[in-house]
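Anyone up for a design puzzle?
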């Protein structure tokens, strides 16, 4: 019994454990608080904003110029919302109505090899139905990977023409999500396709303006 307890303590002391965390960003006048945030892959950010503020992901160049042109990333309506970050990089975002006033921020997502307790690794590839559906103009597409895989997630119009690439990268096993902003597209039926190796699955989504 004593040896068992000692082994457990040694194992616990040498095992890294972390939990997925949700951070909150609020607005203070015409600025985000905090305006700069560093988180880990899998963490979420809750943008709890006033009704006059929105959040849009933009490129670094657009961010530097206090512009508002979307780079195809997350795009939250007035009042904000929650975004889960599954890619290690720096995200640049602005408040669309007040970008010219310098209302903007950054989120840096760092890679980590630590397993997240409570996350179940699926046995097969899973592509979920987008939510909401129908949507206007932003929807979330979630998918699960049974192992570390190179993934392609693309959106096509009804004629089969590619209109957006949401993922084209190697991702770890587990649950992932991507947002598609159809603000520049016409109302209608679109299709999104997840491909990884020999796995291919396509689902329908409806943009209704």
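Challenge accepted. My sequence:
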């Amino acid at each position: 019994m004593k040896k068992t307890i000692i082994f457990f303590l040694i194992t616990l002391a040498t095992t890294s454990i972390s939990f997925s965390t949700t951070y909150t960003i609020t607005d203070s006048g015409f600025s985000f608080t905090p305006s700069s945030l560093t988180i880990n892959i899998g963490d979420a950010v809750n943008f709890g904003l006033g009704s006059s503020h929105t959040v849009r992901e933009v490129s670094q160049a657009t961010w530097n110029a206090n512009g508002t042109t979307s780079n195809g990333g997350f795009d939250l309506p007035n009042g904000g919302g929650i975004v889960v970050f599954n890619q290690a990089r720096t995200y640049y975002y602005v408040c669309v109505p007040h970008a010219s006033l310098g209302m903007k921020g950054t989120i840096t997502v760092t890679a980590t090899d630590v397993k997240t307790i409570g996350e179940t690794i699926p046995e097969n590839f899973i592509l979920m139905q987008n939510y909401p559906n129908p949507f206007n103009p932003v929807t979330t597409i979630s998918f699960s990977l049974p192992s570390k895989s190179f993934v392609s997630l693309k959106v096509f119009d009804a004629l089969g023409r590619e209109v957006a690439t949401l993922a084209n990268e190697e991702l770890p096993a587990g649950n992932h999500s991507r947002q598609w902003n159809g603000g520049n597209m016409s109302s209608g039926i679109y299709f999104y396709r997840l491909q990884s190796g020999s796995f291919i699955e396509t689902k329908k989504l409806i943009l209704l303006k």
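A detail worth pointing out: The helical segments are 2-13, 60-64.
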